[in-house]
UniProtKB/TrEMBL annotation:
PANTHER family: MITOCHONDRIAL METAL TRANSPORTER 1-RELATED. This is Cobalt-zinc-cadmium resistance protein CzcD. Belongs to the cation diffusion facilitator (CDF) transporter (TC 2.A.4) family. It is found in: Membrane. Gene3D superfamilies: Cation efflux protein transmembrane domain, Cation efflux protein, cytoplasmic domain.
């Protein structure tokens, strides 16, 4: 039947579901490991803050705690995203991961506000920084802990296609670099410039704002269904290479969580039977599942070739959605 064009090929659907479960499991493992590592790093830094009174280290520690806490909504989102679709949520729950990205952005913004406030307060009301050796050690601990987490998060995020996890990885990497800034603040105090500590705290705040900007770009692009142009071109080229496909049109691709959904029109010989046209569409879907990484679902609409306008009845709807070229263009 023609409506089978819009249903997943049974074998491919099972593969996609299993692959989605596998990638979600990798994401859950990544947030568990990074949460534990960052909490240990932040707790060690808190102990040094209490001993030294360093506002630069306090700002860095606050950021590390917020970074650790961003693992929690990601964890929840990965779990929710594994739930099967229902009649109310017919596309499933994978978008939960993209919504978790909003929480990550909010936490980064909050950490910038707190770090900036504490730094300014220490400029207005200076406090002596003590135990500089411990302060330097804490900065090094912060760098090593965050860099290890950053490498792990980014690697897993790229492997499974999770923008939220990659953004959180870059967040951790910046935390590591700001931990090194704490070391420079301690050296400034040691050399007789006590204001170096809160000034470094302000520099950390600026660094957090740059992370916030990059995270917002990445997260909101996913929420707006943005993909790399190369992905769209890949879908077009693979579909066009299938025997029986005369042309492709209206190719759409979007991320939903860390998986891709795609839809497109293909033009086939008008003399083909419904069954033969369906077979071409299934071959397109099959090749796309195998050729496009992280692809979960493909919807293929079959158009017969020829001069006859096959979409006249619905053309005004399709034009409004950008699915067909306008006749008056």
């Amino acid at each position: 039947m023609i409506d089978e064009l819009f249903r997943p090929h049974s074998h491919d659907a099972a593969d996609s579901f299993d692959s989605a479960l596998e990638t979600s499991a990798k994401g859950i493992k990544a947030v568990k490991v990074s949460l534990a590592a960052l909490m240990v790093t932040a707790i060690l830094q808190v102990l040094v803050v209490l001993a030294t009174g360093s506002v630069a280290l306090l700002a860095d520690t606050i950021h590390n705690f917020s970074d650790a806490l961003t693992s929690i909504p990601l964890w929840i989102a990965f779990v929710i995203g594994r739930r099967v679709a229902t009649r109310s949520y017919t596309f499933g729950y994978r978008r939960a991961e993209d919504l978790a990205g909003l929480f990550i952005v909010a936490m980064i913004a909050l950490s910038a506000v707190i770090a900036g406030y504490e730094s300014i307060r220490r400029i207005v009301d200076p406090v002596d920084v003590e135990n500089l050796g411990l302060l330097v050690a804490a900065g090094i601990i912060g760098f090593l802990g965050n860099e290890a987490v950053a490498i792990y998060r980014i690697r897993v995020g790229e492997e499974i296609g999770s923008a939220a996890l990659i953004a959180d990885g870059h967040h951790a990497r910046t935390d590591g670099l700001t931990s090194l800034a704490v070391v420079f603040g301690a050296l400034g105090v040691y050399l007789g410039f006590p204001m170096a500590d809160p000034i470094i705290g302000l520099l950390i705040t600026v660094a957090i704002l740059f992370v916030l900007r990059d995270a917002m770009r990445q997260v909101f692009r996913r929420l707006m269904d943005g993909v790399d142009e190369s992905t769209t071109l890949q879908v077009e080229s693979i579909a066009a290479a299938v025997p029986g496909v005369l042309a492709t049109d209206s190719v759409r691709v979007r991320w939903v969580g860390h998986r891709l959904d795609a839809s497109l029109h293909v033009v086939v010989d008008a003399s083909l039977t419904v069954a033969e046209g369906h077979a071409v569409a299934e071959e397109v879907r099959h090749d796309l599942f195998h050729g496009v990484d992280k692809l979960d679902e493909v919807v293929v609409h079959v158009d017969p070739d020829g001069d006859h306008e096959h979409h006249e009845t619905t053309r005004h709807h399709l034009e409004r959605l950008g699915m067909l070229p306008r006749t008056d263009a």
